[in-house]
Structure formats: structure tokens, C-alpha cells
Amino acid sequence: MTRQAARDAFLRRAGWGGAEAAPLAGDASTRRYERLARGAETAILMDAPPDRGNDVEPFVRIAGHLTSFGLSAPRVLAEDRAEGFLLLEDLGDALLARLVAETPADETALYAAATDLLVALHRHPAPPDLPRPGPKDMAQAVDLALTWYAPGCGRETSAAEVERCVALVAQALADLPVEAPVVALRDFHAENLIWLPERSGPAKVGLLDFQDAFAGRRAYDLVSLLEDARRDVPPPVRAAMIDRYIAASGCDADAFRLSADVVAAQRNLRILGVFARLAMHFGKPKYVDLIPRVWAHLQGDLAHPALAELAAFLADTLPDPTPDRLERIRHACGTHPTP
Questions:
Q1: Is residue 113 within 8 Å of 205, Cβ to Cβ?
Q2: CATH classification of 96-331, choosing from 3.30.70.1270, 2.30.30.100, 3.40.50.11320, 3.90.1200.10?
Q3: What is the Cα–Cα distance from 321 to 294, expressed in whole angstroms?
Q4: Which positions fall inside the Aminoglycoside phosphotransferase domain (predicted)?
Q5: Domain boundaries 3-89, corresponding CATH code
């Protein structure tokens, strides 16, 4: 059976056979999304082929966890986990990123609502079945910056340099104050958040793209929101949201700010490598345009004194994204196998 035939059969079983369908912009994965219309009703089809490395089970499980205490994850209307199909509640298309672009005066209020959602989420312990990566696991992901981004810029790196970078990041993470892990949704940013003004409290912010959630540090999703690879968050808004989270959660301010910088450095190093790989290996040049913003975020993170050794190492190892180097990555789009 073709994928199209399997899709049509799933929709017939779900009572949505023959519905009008319009493709939606996807993410950086191999999943596809469609908005279905049946009269006045709409729903979202997630098409996540298992033979392309997808598994819808984490999405279903985490959505259930989030909705169990009143957050706005899409309800699962029908599912075929074996075939990789989900029919989901349609939360609409009022993305925070679009609303802020249309009405910049609302930016602080919208970001405050997203920050308040994280405060509410973090009042609940992470489920025991979530992945719980430790400092070494998190640090290993930064090797992409040295194995994809640096070579893409023309700077080949050695195995010893990769090992050193991973070790420095792992040590910085291990040195952070101990805290109880919370749910880290991983891709918590303005293009994955839906404004739902008819709902109340933290449910006003709808959640998308959380299937890769893990048990992690409180700061992870907040820095994902505030150090967005796709849009500039003004420094006063960033500072205000960190203050807001600290005040509402009651966490230690100095410890949280340290954690935010260290976690953000790990995250932005990983993203540099991910974006270079998406361009060079998967032929997606649009991600090259985002690299300078990620680089700028990383430089801000590395200014923390606790990251001085890592900052010095990276200054000698990672080239800055000059126009010529970015063009070099673009020129290599889709030409590089996995190293």
C-alpha cells in the first residue's frame, strides 16, 4: 500500500474520508502536516512515516501529560501508531511569531503568557518515562558544531578538538546547581506557540512540536523562547521574562541565570551544527540564513565567567559566520554525506 493509500484509509476510519486538505508548513523533520476541513469542522493530520525514523507514541504520551493539568496541547482525535498517523485538534494558526510581527506592541504580553505557561508546567514533576539525558549526553550533541558547522566554514577539526569541546560543555553542565528535572519541551519558540485568547490562564498558549521533550533543567525552554533562532527578541523583553520567571517560580536568581547561560550555550552550539547539517546534507539552504543569529546568541552566552574556558577554546576553533563562509555552506547544500 502506498503512503497516500494508507493516509486515505486512516482518514476514512476516522470519519474524515474525503475531507478537503491543505498542506501546512512543516518543521525540520520528515513529518508532514495537513489541515483538513469537513464543513465547519477542521482538524490536523500528522503524517509521520515510521520508515523515516518517526514514532508518534511520544507525542501522544506527552500531549496526554500536558492536558492532564490544563495546558493546551492538541487533543488526539484518532490515531494509528503503527502506520504513523495522528488526527489532532486544530488549535488554529495564530502563531505568536505572526502576532508579534503584526502587532509589535503586544510582544511583551505574549511573551509573558508563554513564560507563565512554563512556570505552570514546571510545578509538575517530569514523568518517569521521559528521557533523562545527563551532562555528558547533552554535551555530546554539540559535536555537530565541530563536525558540520566548522568544516562547512572551511575549518576542519580533529577528533581531539571535538572531544575537548564535548568535555568542556559536559563539565559546565555538571557544575550547575542540582535541581529537580522538569519537562523540557525542547522546541519551545514563537513559531510553535498558538495564541488562544478564549482560554484562561496558561491554557491561553497552545503547544506544538513537543514530541522530543525530555526531563531537563528549568532554564531550557525559557532560553529556547528568548534566544530564538528565527526572530530577534529585544534584550529588554529577554531580561523581563527571566525576571518574571524567577519571581513567579521562587527559584534562586543567580543559580537560574547561570543555568540559563550554560544551557543556552549548549543549545546554540548544537543548533549551529544542526543548521549546517540541514543545509549541507539535507539540501535546505534556508537554515543558513539563521546561523548569524544563533552565533550572536552563543557569543552572549559565552560572556558568562563560568564559560570562560569554553569561550577561549571556541574562539580558536569555530570560525565566525562571515558572508563568505555562509556562502560556502550554501554552495555545499545537499552535497555532503554524513561524516
A1: yes
A2: 3.90.1200.10
A3: 10
A4: 21-246
A5: 3.30.200.20
Q: What percent of the chain has pLDDT over 90?
A: 93
Cα–Cα–Cα angle for 267, 268, 273, rounded to 5 degrees? 100
Per-residue CA distances from 154 to 131, 317, 329, 332 (Å): 35, 11, 9, 11
Using alpha carbons only, give the angle 288, 291, 292 rounded to the nearest 5 degrees. Answer: 125
CA distance 338 to 334: 11
Q: Residue 299: which of 291, 324, 78 has the closest Cα?
A: 291
Q: Which tens digits make up the pLDDT trace of 299-312?
A: 999 999 999 999 99
Q: Could you tell me the residue ranges of all domains in the chain?
A: 3-89, 96-331
Confidence (pTM): 0.93
Query: Are domains 3-89 and 96-331 of this chain identical in fold?
Result: no
Give how far Cα 104 sits from Cα of 96, 206, 217, 329, 336, Å. Answer: 11, 20, 30, 33, 40
